[in-house]
Amino acid sequence: MTINQLSQQNAFTTKDGSTIRSILDRTNAPVQNQSLAEATVPVGQSTERHYHKLSEEFYFILEGQGSMEIDGETRDVCPGDAILIPPNAWHQITATQTLRFLCCCAPPYAHEDTYFAIL
After folding, report:
1. Per-residue model confidence as pLDDT tens digits over 96-107
2. By C-alpha distance, which of 91, 103, 105 is closest to 46?
3. Most Cβ neighbours (<10 Å): which of 8, 22, 30, 98?
4. Do the Cβ atoms of 63 and 79 come closer than 8 Å?
5. Domain residues of the chain, as ranges?
C-alpha cells in the first residue's frame, strides 16, 4: 500500500513555470500509468503556453480564479471546475487570484513530454 502525504512532498517548478508538489508519480511511488500533483500559479502569473504529445491531463481547481486557454478557446475557471486537456492541445492557465489545483496526467507527467512554440 502506498499513501503519500501532500505536506511531505517537495515543491519544484515544471518546464511550464507552475510550482508543483507531486503527490503520486514515478519519483515517489510504484506508479505505472498516471500521476497526481498539486499545482500553484500565483496571482497575475501564467504557465507558459505548451502541449504534451503523450499525456492527457485533468486540472481540478481547488482555490482561486483564473482563465484557461486550450487551443485558442478561453474560459474562466474557479473552485470545483474540472478541465480536460487532450494530448497535443496547446494550453495555458492564468491566475487572476492565486490558483491551486490538482493536475492528473496519463501517462505520468514528464518534462520530456512538454513542448513549447519555437519563436
Report:
1. 999 999 999 999
2. 91
3. 22
4. yes
5. 15-102
Query: What are the strands, taking DSSP E only, across 1-34?
Result: 11-13, 19-24
Query: What is the amino acid identity at position 112?
Result: E
Distance CA 13, CA 32 (A): 22
- Assigned C-alpha cell, 26: 514515478
Cell 496519463 found at: 106
Quick: pLDDT tens for 2-37.
999 999 999 988 877 789 999 999 989 999 999 999
Closest CA to 77 of 91, 56, 59: 59
Claim: this prediction has a pTM higher than 0.90: yes
- Cβ neighbours of residue 119 closer than 8 Å, sequence gap 6 or more: none
CATH number for the domain formed by residue range(s) 15-102: 2.60.120.10
**Alpha carbons 112 and 101: distance in angstroms, whole number:** 22
